[in-house]
Amino acid sequence: MAKPKKQPRPKAETPKGFRDYFGPEVTERTEMLRTIAGVYHRYGFDALESSAVETVEALGKFLPDVDRPNEGVFAWQEDDSDWVALRYDLTAPLARVYAQHRNDLPTPYRRYAMGPVWRNEKPGPGRFRQFYQCDADTVGTASMAADAEICAMLSDALEIVGIPRGDYLIRINNRKVLNGVLGNIFGEPEAVAETIGAGDPSGEERMQGVLRTIDKFDKVGEAGVRELLGKGRLDASGAYIDGVGLNDDQIEPVIQFLTSKGSSNQETLDNLTAAIGTNAVGGQGVLELRQIAELLDAAGYGPDRIVIDPSVVRGLGYYTGPVYEAELTFEVFDEKGRKRQFGSVAGGGRYDDLVKRFTGQAVPATGVSIGVDRLLTALREKGRIHSEAHGPVVVTVMDRDRMADYQAMVAELRNAGIRAEVYLGNPKNFGNQLKYADRRDSPAAVIEGADEKARGVVQVKDLILGKQIAENATLEEWKERPSQVEVPRSELVATIRKILDGQG
Amino acid sequence: MAKPKKQPRPKAETPKGFRDYFGPEVTERTEMLRTIAGVYHRYGFDALESSAVETVEALGKFLPDVDRPNEGVFAWQEDDSDWVALRYDLTAPLARVYAQHRNDLPTPYRRYAMGPVWRNEKPGPGRFRQFYQCDADTVGTASMAADAEICAMLSDALEIVGIPRGDYLIRINNRKVLNGVLGNIFGEPEAVAETIGAGDPSGEERMQGVLRTIDKFDKVGEAGVRELLGKGRLDASGAYIDGVGLNDDQIEPVIQFLTSKGSSNQETLDNLTAAIGTNAVGGQGVLELRQIAELLDAAGYGPDRIVIDPSVVRGLGYYTGPVYEAELTFEVFDEKGRKRQFGSVAGGGRYDDLVKRFTGQAVPATGVSIGVDRLLTALREKGRIHSEAHGPVVVTVMDRDRMADYQAMVAELRNAGIRAEVYLGNPKNFGNQLKYADRRDSPAAVIEGADEKARGVVQVKDLILGKQIAENATLEEWKERPSQVEVPRSELVATIRKILDGQG
């Protein structure tokens, strides 16, 4: 008889760019999101959980023009008809939800959402294809009070999860001000305001060049920006970077805009007004910033927390008014050991056209998205996450037939609010049980052999103290094992509690 | 010039079978899962969040044999090479995770997981293609203490979320006992135990028929099962259902097995022992049930909470030992107004072969999955979810230029822990503001016009009382509007608090 063909074993791997999250990685994130949700809720925002799968048509941006939708999303065809995709953010689904349910939702509609999103992008170190976002948006109002409220709420949220005042800064700009500056340079201010970059291709190219250059202001400074807007620049590595090719008359207003930041919001706004001149769109942008600044000032959110800053440029094309970004300003060491500012953890702005796609009616909206994983990383870097110090207490199994006794012990401990488990592996090798307790990072192991049972006592091994002794003690001291105590069975819970309280 | 072609508007719809969850639907589920996670954690289980996307190869069951993987999962091909899919449960990913990370995980590994899963099935009323599961599993131990622990933990979890003792029952059976009975009837007990249904096709067909019939025991009773196992049965609708075609000697042991449930676990186990006879596999199954019963008995989980019940048949083919199911025993009205037992909300069992697919080594495992949406429905039916009684307090806008004043009011309320928001829509029509407050289910609206501002007072409208009056009062009474009070601005927070406390 022929040997049956052996199936090759499947590989135990996540798909490329995906990962699993274990223990504290999950619970710390859950706890942080719960805290943020509490802030959002107090501000009157309602929870929304939209479906993870959307039609490609509703997601918009990535309509299938060929056989397969654009890169960037995970999309597939259902039943030889509709293309569907995993959501790539929480904003596009919100626009769909609002358009679908607008008759049942309050106007304005304040909502928050938290959950995973998926991006079909090249994975890299620390860059995954599934990650969490945490958004808050207000749909259905053009009032700048909505934008001011979101910035204030973001400030509250950052502080409540553990970023103290002084360690973060929320910076606000307005896309209209930038559009006004560009309109002054490239002409057709109205057209530029409507669709940035529309117009002749060379003008569009230069406009994009200006935007990219503005984004480098923090890095290369005023002189660098001047060179990059003009003929070009020799960078630190010795490479020559071609410039955008503007003349001095065109460069000047961009520099004036970029360096508008004064010592107060008032001064910044005055500088911006001067930079904009008579440009109508730009003037509207400055007016909006002024309204936001006044509201925040009245609410006590000073420039130590939220500040007008013209150098903020956010990437997404759909912003139409105020844009904002939260940066963590403390320094961390990067992978090469260099000190760096931690950088951005949240951003957002006003997008007035997203719902219009569905309904034909313009629906003004503004909102923020927190990069959950980056914020968690920041909190861990600063030691602001107080995760559990230890794993569960492990009750060892000395006598397999007395499992019920050991289960009674863990039940007692749990009822006292203490995390505890009985060893469920093969109990034959006691060393393995202690190794298991070690791997579980247990604060204590409980031992009750036949002898202890007969005498009505248990042995309690203080594994926290044990570790300290193992690190510092001589072999003699180690052998005396003072970290193990014998106590009456009735004192089990009290003894464990002492160990957990650090008085063991 | 030709009119530019108009793009049709995208439809604002979820894909078929998907839905969105709003406000309390989200927060009530989050809160319930958090409570359950607390129980699991106290039992020593660690959180795990695996990626939502898995390779089809790792998911197993649905290997692509043609161009497109089987129905049942949402799957697509990445980069013309690997097929990937959305997870359809939390157990298959656990097997992959354990195989992948087994060197870094403790053995046994207790883990819990909660999150959405996706099924590419025909949607129906209340049946969606994305839904939540909440699982707890112990991997790496063959000890029946693991199964007993999971059942006890499930019992604790149900009670803590609000299902009181007496309103639920966890029933335990063992697949091996059933295999033993079938082995006695169809012969080749070892082969039957290894792969149920292997053997000659007609035998397999009859075996499946027996399983289906056993599942109907609750519905048709002993006499009905006898008929269905034999020649057939005329059902209530007058239709004749063909029987499995067993003879009386074959029917008897099945009936004996099915009716083994005694007045105590002890009696049930004795009856099962008699039903099994000398069958080795069946004997092992009864022994396992006996161990579980003893452990639960010692831990105080009596048959009012967890009971051995031979009529439990769980669908999944991969269970290899104990199977368990949690039923809610209280009655609800179904869509036709008939009284029904609420039914199953959780189930699970032992599956010893899932990890072996990856590693070649058998890894024993056991676990339970809670149907999150069904449990939530049950809690709502029983009024056991105490959602917020009201929405946020709404501060109305009488004077658009004094937005800062209104924001100061909401800030004060929030700082006092009261959910509050300022109206952000167009304030021109005051009626719309009150309609908004109504739609938000606000407990109170705050009004401060120029006159109130000048006199240092605010108007507070008690909307809870207002609603009561609107329902009961005459027009005269209504016009007096006693539900609106004028208070000093400094007493705003105290006045709102009185209303929230029901003393407004």
UniProtKB/TrEMBL annotation, chains A, B:
Q: Indicate the quaternary assembly.
A: Homodimer.
Protein family per UniProt: Belongs to the class-II aminoacyl-tRNA synthetase family.
Protein's name in the database? Histidine--tRNA ligase
Query: Does ATP-binding count among this protein's keywords?
Result: yes
Q: What gene makes this protein?
A: hisS
Q: What catalytic reaction does the record list? A: tRNA(His) + L-histidine + ATP = L-histidyl-tRNA(His) + AMP + diphosphate + H(+)
The record places domain Aminoacyl-transfer RNA synthetases class-II family profile at 29-392
Which species is the source of this protein? Marinibacterium profundimaris
Superkingdom of source: Bacteria
